Amino acid sequence: KKFKRRSPKKFTAIYLRLAAFYKKQGNWRRYAKMMKEFDTKRLGPYPMRLHARMEYALMRRKMGARREAERIFQRIPGAYDTLPKEKKIKYPQAGYAAAHVRFMDAEKLFREYLKIRLDRRMGKKAMFKRLQAKKKVLLKVYHSYEKVVKYRQGEWSVAALYRAGDLFLNYSKFLLSAPPPDRREVRKEVVLVLRNVLSRRKVPRRLHMRILRRPNFQQIIERQVQTAIDNYKMKLQELAQPEEDRAVHFYQRCLR
Fold first, then answer.
1. Residue 207 has what DSSP assignment?
2. 11 phi and psi, to 5 degrees?
3. What is the pLDDT averaged over residues 32-55?
4. Which of 3, 138, 224, 236 has fewest C-beta within 10 Å?
């Protein structure tokens, strides 16, 4: 205690060096205890105690106390955000801890996002709803990674940018994975259009199918069906390409 009062900076440096030694030796319990004491007994500046709190939570999670660790994690970013600017600059360890927690939160959302998939048996309406739901979650996850980048904490910023790239690349692949329309359904729609054309030309309805069964009309129908399916695929490609471009943009930012 006397040494702490006489040389607080030296005391803090020696204490943390000793704690790091126990961590390196794999003595998690001793390391966790030292990190908890550093925080609760106020053995260093508040920003450094936030980092110690983060380390304690990580150790507790390793030891199986996930709920306790989660409660501690959730309080760290808010505590960091209230720090004065000069302290944030002076003690980057606190920002590192806050960015780490924000990244973990974003990763949870990212895992939920990946669970949203398309099913080949889906109808048009169900597929459209699923696409909207995926886009909504994508924006939510992206904003979570944006928060990490704003902390300007080196490796966590790079990790968040890389994950943002993964996010948009996944959405691009998701769009391209949309199953093509059922050929029989497209054929029905084409036949209906042709019957409407014949009706406008005053052809009796009882003769429609006889005319449409002719070889030349069958070729027209098949061409129209294939064109409709090709247009559908091209539309998906048009929607997916900007998302892929965004992914490349974020990957490139990682290299700057």
1. G
2. -60, -45
3. 91
4. 3
